[in-house]
Amino acid sequence: MTGKEAFLDTVRRALRRAGEGGHAPGVEGPSRIPPTLQAWRAEAERVRQRLLAQREGVLLRLQQMAEVMQWRVVRAGSPAGAARAVAAIAREVGARLVVRTAHPVFTRVPVEEALREAGVPCHLLSSDERDRALLRERAARADLGVTGVEYMVAETATALILARRGVSRLASLTPPRHIALVEPEQVVESLADALALQKARFLEEGDPGGYWSLISGPSRTGDIEQTIVVGAHGPREVYLVALW
Amino acid sequence: MVEVLAHRFRESAQHTLENAAVQRSLRRLSHFQEARARAVQEIGPERWEALREQGRRIKQEAIRRLDVYLEELARQVEGRGGKVCWAATAREANEYVLQVARRHGVRTVIKSKSMVTEETGLTPFLEAAGIEAVETDLGEYIIQLAGERPFHIIAPALHKSKEEIADLFARRLGAPRVSDIPALAGIAREVLREKFFRAEMGVTGVNFAVAETGTIVLVTNEGNARMCTSLPRVHVAFMGMEKVVPRWEDLAVFLPLLTRSATGQRISSYVTFVTGPRRADEEDGPEEFHLVILDNGRSRILADPEVQEALYCIRCGACLNACPVYGKVGGHTYGWVYPGPIGSIVTPMLVGLPQAADLPFASSLCGACREVCPLRINIPHMLLALRHRLVEGPPRERKGNLMERALMRGWLFLVEYPWAFTAAGRLASLLQRPLLRRGRIPWLPPPLNGWTRFRDFPPIAARPFRARWKAGERGMGR
Question: Which residue from A21, A217, A233 is facing B222, i.e. has the nearest CB?
Answer without folding.
Answer: A233
